[in-house]
Amino acid sequence: MAKKPNQKTYVYLNGRIIGHVADPTAFVNEVRSARRTGNLSGEVNISYMPKLGTVNINTDRGRIRKPYIIVENGKPKFTADIKDRLDRKEIDFNYLVRSGIIEYLDAEEEENALVAFNEAGITEKTTHMDVDLASIFGFTVNMAPYPEHNNLARHAMLANFIKQAEGMYATNFNLRFDSRAYILYYPQAPISTTTPYTSTRMAQHSAGQNFVVAISTYYGYNMADAVVINKAAVDRGLGRSTFYKSYTDEERRYPGGQRDMFRIPPPTAEGYLGEHAYSKLSEDGIIEPEMPVEEGDVLIGKVAPPRFLEESLGASGLEEKIRDDSSTLKTGERGIVDSVVFTESPGATKIVKVRIRSQRVPEVGDKFASRHGQKGVVALITPQEDMPFTPSGIVPDLLINPHSIPTRLTFGYLLEMLAGKAGSVTGQFIDGTAFSEDGTKRTEDCGKMLEQYGFDKYGEEELYDGITGKRFGAKLFTGCIYYHRLYHMVSNKMQVRSRGTVQILTHQPTEGKARQGGLRFGEMERDVLIGYGASLLLKERLLDQSDKTDVLICKDCGAIGYYDYIKKVALCPICRGSNLVDIEISYAFKLLLDEIKSMHILPTIKLKD
Q1: Residue 580, beta-bridge partner list
Q2: What is Dmax (Cα atoms) for the chain?
């Protein structure tokens, strides 16, 4: 809707109307020039929306803002002279912002800007120019080389995978007690780097390793997203990591002068776990470092007062009852006690922290990902002698399926493989920053480097099958690429149950690995069995293996009855009759009937013969 001739232009400050102006264009220009000369804060952003007839001023927190070089009269204010002064470190970036050479725009003010990528693209209407084309991407995407050659959807994925990678997250990890931590044994700096990666010194916290990769199938094992890994490489330490988990407990104080105590609980304590559970504790009730532990082992022995006051005195009225409140190792976990720390809380109560470490060697089901959103789960770890090999004896660390590349349009993956190969034979880092002007030239240079060392300039190699010894009919694309090992490991997720605990309310199995729960059989899984017509399997999954219960139903009035153990007869509470029959229903259905009764509605069940 366009602005009418006499319509006022309202001015909004952070979404609230503060007034109106007669000439919005002049007003906006005046505010911008005040910002550029330093008379107004550089944090202020202003935009004019002619279709809405509004001027929006934003000064609030949390806006994403991006720096741009200001262009006036068809020329950028950032000149060669200023660049030289910046290179000599006479001035810094903040000086450029204060001097009105660079300004930060938010998402709304960008609507009023016409931005050129470089000086060649500047026209009469251009208002700004990009500081660096790589700034189009965020910090995380800029960690990946050649991202401009990938499909847009992969950028969101690669950003997530970089965040999930195991590596050196902190150099003082052995002094920290984070709840969960993963440390890669042999982190490497990538051969193909980017300017943001080096300028932020990310190599000091590197989170991956350079893999030799061949794009090839392998007897159907690496179908879809699966990958095949070389066992010899794993034995040499490829992708090997340590998993740290911390357990914390505190001696709390309670009203009435009672408090918790760290000690080995006596057999008289309520909830005593048995002598074997406390066998690894020292005299003070705390486990010692370097002790191997498995699920169910007590790490911190602790006794606590009863939860309710009437329980606090025992039967004789003299001895005080206590309950066991020890910290045990969770289900499915094992490892070695790495470190034990005693400390105090601000309230002067004693705190104990125990850190468990366990070595994680890559196994079938573990997840790896490159910096191009190409994730893969290990489907086979095969001996080196069965892997394909080159005439010079190079065996790939990993085999990825050829179908993964054209369907995902991740051509940056191929460029990184080529650059990594060139960098590894020449012994130098190859720059793969997004949108860098010599990008295509750089790729051609990689080909020339490979040719100098006797390789194919396109990265293809003849390979031989390790099992049959025959040469493959086609050349395979082989190179060196940076891979992350992600923290999604099968050993942390593996879950199994035959029978076990059930919920008190619904009598259905508990949920989640930590509570020894069953696997959820949801509505969609139910639909599949209905579609197949497998009704007995459906009954088994949703009734027999879940919350099957026997109830007594009155044949006369359809109410749920009960068994009177004194009279030794089944009775109906509604009609007081004893004509009842035993049927199987889901306990959740009985619960529904009970909840309907609580609303003063009487549901009845009609029985057929």
Answers
A1: 554
A2: 105
Read off the pLDDT of residues 541-596 as tens digits, 9 standing for 90 and up: 999 999 999 999 999 899 999 999 998 999 999 988 889 999 999 999 999 999 99
What is the rounded end-to-end Cα distance, in angstroms, of the chain?
72
| Backbone dihedral region for residue 221 (phi beyond 0: left; psi -120 to 50: alpha; all else: beta) | alpha
What are the residues facing 583 on neighbouring strands? 551
444, containing H or E segment: helix 439-452
CB-based contact 347:528 (threshold 8 Å): no
Report whether 244 contacts 178 (CB < 8 A): yes
Q: Which residues of 524-562 are buried (b: 16+ CB within 10 A; e: fewer)?
A: eeeeebeeeeeeeebeebbbeebbeeebbbbeebbbbbe
SS3 294: strand
Q: Which two tokens stand for residue 317?
A: 């009225």
Check: CB of residue 298 under 8 Å from CB of residue 281.
yes
Mapping DSSP to helix (H, G, I), strand (E, B) and coil, where does residue 191 land?
A: coil
Distance CA 372, CA 500 (A): 43
Distance, CA of 210 to CA of 416 (rounded, Å): 11
Q: Is the pLDDT of residue 438 over 80?
A: no
Q: What are the backbone angles phi and psi of residue 382, rounded to the nearest 5°?
A: -110, 145
Q: What's the Cα-to-Cα distance from 217 to each of 234, 401, 465, 469, rounded to whole Å?
A: 20, 5, 11, 16
Handedness of CA 170, 173, 176, 182 (dihedral sign): positive
The predicted-structure confidence for 467-525, as pLDDT tens digits, reads as follows 999 999 999 999 999 999 999 999 888 888 888 899 999 999 998 888 888 888 999 99
Strands (E) located in 455-591: 460-461, 476-485, 548-554, 560-564, 569-571, 580-586
CA-nearest of 26, 124, 14, 112 to 68 is 112
* DSSP-H helix ranges across 3-151: 24-36, 80-87, 93-98
- The per-residue pLDDT for 5 is 58
Quick check: 323 and 296 in contact, CB under 8 A? no
User: Considering 132, 225, 445, 465, which one is annotated as catalytic?
Assistant: 225
E strand map for 232-309: 241-250, 261-262, 292-294, 298-300, 302-304
Q: Which of 330, 326, 333, 332 is nearest to 287 (CA)?
A: 326
What lies within 8 Å, CB to CB, of 418 at 6+ separation is 443, 446, 447, 450, 458, 459, 479
Q: What is the pLDDT of residues 32-66, one digit of tens each?
A: 999 998 899 989 999 999 999 999 999 999 999 99
Distance CA 275, CA 95 (A): 70
Alpha carbons 453 and 16: distance in angstroms, whole number? 67
- Other beta carbons within 10 Å of 438: 11
225 catalytic? Reply is: yes
| All structural domains of the chain | 9-136 (no CATH), 147-240+368-485 (2.40.270.10), 242-360 (2.40.50.150), 495-544 (3.90.1800.10), 548-597 (3.90.1800.10)
pTM listed for this prediction: 0.83
Q: CA-to-CA distance for 568 and 168, rounded, in angstroms?
A: 70
What is the pLDDT confidence band of residue 74, given thresholds at 50, 70 and 90? confident
Report percent pLDDT > 70 for the chain: 97
